[in-house]
Amino acid sequence: MQRAYFDHNATTQVDPEVLAAMLPYFSQEYGNPNSVHFFGQAARGAVERARALVAALIGARPSEIVFTSGGTEADNLAIFGTVGAVAGQWAETDRARPPHIITTTIEHDAMLHSCDALESRGVAVTRVPVDRDGVVAPDAIRRALRPETVLISVMQANNELGTIQPIEEIGRIAHEAGVRFHTDAVQAAGKVALSVSTLGVDLLSLSAHKFYGPKGVGALFVRKGVKLEPLLYGSRGEGGRRAGTENVAGIVGLGKAAEMARVRLGEQGERVRTLRDRLEQGLVARVAGARVNGGAAYRLPNTCNIMFPSVESESLVIALDLQGLACSAGAACLSGAVDPSHVLAAIGMSTEEARGSIRLSLGRTTTEDDIDFALSVIPEAVARQRELETHPTQKAAAGS
What we know:
The chain has 13 helices and 15 strands. It is an alpha/beta fold. It folds into 2 domains: about 5-10 and about 265-400, Aspartate Aminotransferase, domain 1 (Alpha-Beta Complex); about 15-260, Aspartate Aminotransferase, domain 2 (3-Layer(aba) Sandwich), CATH 3.40.640. The strands form 4 sheets. It has a 7-stranded mixed β-sheet, sandwiched between helices. It has a 4-stranded antiparallel β-sheet with strand order 9-10-15-12.
């Protein structure tokens, strides 16, 4: 059976060169990087070389890179760390007005759930809405500012729609107000060029497995001079910002993936964009009523979120998987009920529209043949599901 993978925003295959770079650190290069002897210092050297490679990917200093277990921990460290660093000072100066965070309604759950947790502890949170294409207006961020605002967090690129936010403009607003600015760049890193200076961010999160590195390792850029309260306590790892022995093999893999992403960025980005555009145009032409969600916005070159009327996305994803095509739904299954994506709801889509949307995310390994395959099987699967919806008896028989 032919198989095609269209879920690169969920995770990517570890590149063979990345795997080769990691393998020695599972066997002969086994030292603890915090040990002073030969074995430990060999491991320390590998960690620091990787730190420099990650820094180069985003235009930072190596000393500004903190290794984490992934994007979720990086986001949590940025958010809780910022609030924790100011909490004591704030309590002494103004107990009546708690610290305030500004974010958007389409952030990743790592950000939104962290804000929920802080809100339950008394921190004030403003969730700024976005437009129909999933883009936040910088002026809306400006209007949300308060004297007690301590952090603005806006993701660089949305994981479902691929829409890219006006980070540079928001960065200028944050710095004019003297407010720390964080961006979750987990989906953007390795897909579009990033420069922390150009973006104007103080904190930036990324994750290796989104750009052909291993799972379980990521990084947080922390601009020099920015104070963070650590999440973990123990040994003074990562300059006192993250306790614990470093995941040397994973960090080496992250460094190699960052190095390769930096070299291949322009060429691969344009190739993937061309394939994505052909896929979208083909689906819109072949499927009645099909519409690209967020299609009018500046987006990641690899991401297509598309709505098919009169279709249930979870069933469609399963049907496509049986045909050999892997993608994801624009909805999550929670407690036995399919709830619409909070991102699609935030851009004004109805529950029915959101539940009829799927995400197709391309990658370095996507080929013209994969696009041809998708343009063959997706319209057929949509037509079959619509037929079942029109004839409930057939649908019941198919499910029995």
